[in-house]
Amino acid sequence: MSRAPLLVLASVVSVQAGQAVGKRAFDLLEPAGVVTLRLGLAALVLLAVMRPRLPTEPRSIGLVVAFGTAIAGMNLVYPAMRYLPLGVATSLLLLGPLAVALAGSRRPLDAGWALLACAGVFLVGGGSSGPLPLPGVLLALCAGAAMGCYLLLSRRAGTAARGTLALAVAWAAVVTLPFGISASGTDLLRPSALAVGLLVAVLSAVLPYSLELAALRRLPPRTVGVLQSLEPVAGALAGLVLLAEVLDARQWAAVGCITAASAGAVFTPRRAGGTPCPGRGGTPASAPGARAHPSPSPRSPRPRRTRGAGPAPRSAPPPPRRASW
């Protein structure tokens, strides 16, 4: 049996465990401080590994700025977790990629997935303890919208230079730095805070990308996307185990609806020539929220030469490979 699916599941668990550790760090730092350390330390790791060159063209600079701003917006899920359980916040976050995956579709089946996701939103708003806090819901939805923008921008970033992701994460760290300093001040430099921030950065960023890239060498992006649709469930379980957050039956049903809608939107075959949903890794995938690693383009066959013919025409060079992150 292939171990590739286990790599994807390990990545999903790692992301949600990292977010749970980040929420536990709210005892040491404000959420904005946790985000600043997470992005700052992740940027240092990525810059050290990729060693990117600074862009000089305005178009490349604009892509880094827009991509990094979207990454910073995705981290609004951390202040949302101050008000919401981890599983609920992750479910609302997934609505952004799901909306991107379903946008422009005219098939009745996709409308059914959208209705199922709406049912999940309706269910997640209520529970045995009453309606969810509005600030948390709005922050999680804004983070989901930012993730949708991230996926759209990743289509362009996938064809850009290899170090685009590292530079974008560095820009995201710069964007969030004033908020982190304002909220946590010198507490950001405490050894315990730095240790927790490094752990969150590794669990929620560095390790998942490494596991997914290894899995995508063995699995098609659609399979990876279906497995990644389990993130709301993994988030609910991580919240239960690491944070003692207990969801009621209605909230579990909401998590199930949004997970099923995401998996269904990924698994349902698209028409030939359709535009796949871009992945979080910066390249197109068929999954909402999937991080993709495209296969290299096949080589063009060399034209045959016949006797008496002139020199063979030069074949066009193969298209450049997308940067894999």
What does this entry look like structurally?
By secondary structure, the protein is mostly helical. The chain contains 12 helices and no strands. Helix 1 (4-24) runs parallel beside helix 10 (221-228) and helix 6 packs antiparallel against helix 12. The longest helix is centred in the middle third of the chain and has 26 residues, at 191-216. Residues 272-325 have low confidence and may be disordered.
Features:
12 helices, mainly alpha, disordered C terminus, globular, 325 residues, single chain
Distance between the termini: 26 Å
Average of pLDDT: 78
Helix-strand pattern? HHHHHHHHHHHH
Largest sheet: none
Derived structural class: mainly alpha
Can you tell me the residue ranges where pLDDT is under 50 for at least 5 consecutive residues?
Answer: 272-325
Helix content: 55-70%
Strand content: under 5%
Number of helices: 12
Count of DSSP E strands?
0
Gyration radius, in Å: 21 Å
Shape: globular
In short:
It contains twelve helices and no strands. The protein has helices spanning 4-24, 31-50, 58-74, 77-80, 86-102, 108-124, 134-157, 164-184, 191-216, 221-228, 231-243, 249-267. The longest helix has 26 residues, at 191-216.
Topology:
Elements (H helix, E strand, L loop, with lengths): L3 H21 L6 H20 L7 H17 L2 H4 L5 H17 L5 H17 L9 H24 L6 H21 L6 H26 L4 H8 L2 H13 L5 H19 L58
